[in-house]
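Q: Protein A?
A:
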Amino acid sequence: METARIFEKHGLSACINVIATAHHDDFVPPDEYHSVPAGDFGLWNELVARGHEVMPHGYKHQNLTEVPLQVAKDLIMRCLDYFSEALDGFDPKEAIFNFPYNASNLAIEEWLADQVKAFRTGYAQINPLPHAGQKKLICSSHGPGNIDTFLTEEIDRFLASPGGWLIFNTHGLDEEGWGPLSASHLDSLLFELKAKENVLVIPAGRALADV
């Protein structure tokens, strides 16, 4: 996987969020952007063994705010159960659940807070630095076109701010997926960020594990 290779080039670990059933032959992509081939848990286990972080992104790519609460809960539990069986070393209580479409609501969040370490949702806010008991993580994202310029501007705004924890959710490289990032741009961004003494590039789960 090219993303993992680029992170490894800089001595960093990638954070990869996975739809549990996206590799199944009968998986129905929710839109044209999800029609690219998906890795299976053989690949995800290999990447975990290489030091990367793989976290759940749903049983299928369903906006959980558009279904009844019990259906949303069932889909999340099916996802967590699938990961528990298929991903080496996975523990829901140490996991971050990444909401499809960055879409959640208070009822789902309150229930999910007892099922996982934390959850990631939208939208566009700098988080407090990682701390014990931190449950709700807010991320930024952009699309459907190339995000090179947007991501650079987002990072520049963050670096000019008083600080905190910026989580940016990207979707694929070059022409792949919704809101893709150029592989060459990712390479240069990681090079620049790693050189900054006051910046740490780290997977979300690992950040919370250290507090």
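Q: Protein B?
A:
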Amino acid sequence: MQFAGNAVAQGTAYMERNFNQWVNMPALRHYFNVNNMYVITKLKLLLFPWRHSPWSRSIRRTETGQMDGFRPPREDINSPDLYIPVMALVTYILLCGLAAGRQGSFHPEKLYVAASTATAVAFTELVFTRLGCYFLSIPFEASLLDLIAYYGYKYVCIIVVDVVDLLGAKGWVSWVVFLYTGFSIGFFLLRSMRYVILPDSAAGPSTLNPQRKRRMWFLLMIAAFQMLYMFFLIN
């Protein structure tokens, strides 16, 4: 028994060492550092972002006053997390299966198609953002996980639309819900990703006006495309 226990412990340690070579576990834990209050408040923010203020993220400092990164989600409502996007994505895939089942056309492949489509959309968004930042000479200060979190929030809005459809609401009701949630997630990203696309917004005259306008248009495109992605994923 002791030999088996040692073997399991050694195997676990080996897997952790190799896994940590590819995944930054401390950074990943940061995005899942949430609590119930954060989740509830964040869901309200995603659906009703209009009067929220401020949008800036809270900085964590050491005892000497040095900047030590950003506060985790449970301590800052403006901090992006991965818990809500992951749960929303899983729920979206299950709802796709449920909708297919109600139509009598369910097959496990439907879940695979939904997951593959969501992955393709996420990849497209990430590439578009990185290329836009490159061509506009935007210093990219956000991490890849930040972008995945921000773009993953749209699935909360998609779930709302899907649930309304599953409850039998059709026609103008469904379209009103779709348009509202599309505008809400667009507005949320417009304010939340401002520090990513316009990192020097507080610098004033140091940023040339034409360059700042191009960056602003790029940010508006990112926000506007959310509704397009939502329409594609829902249908």
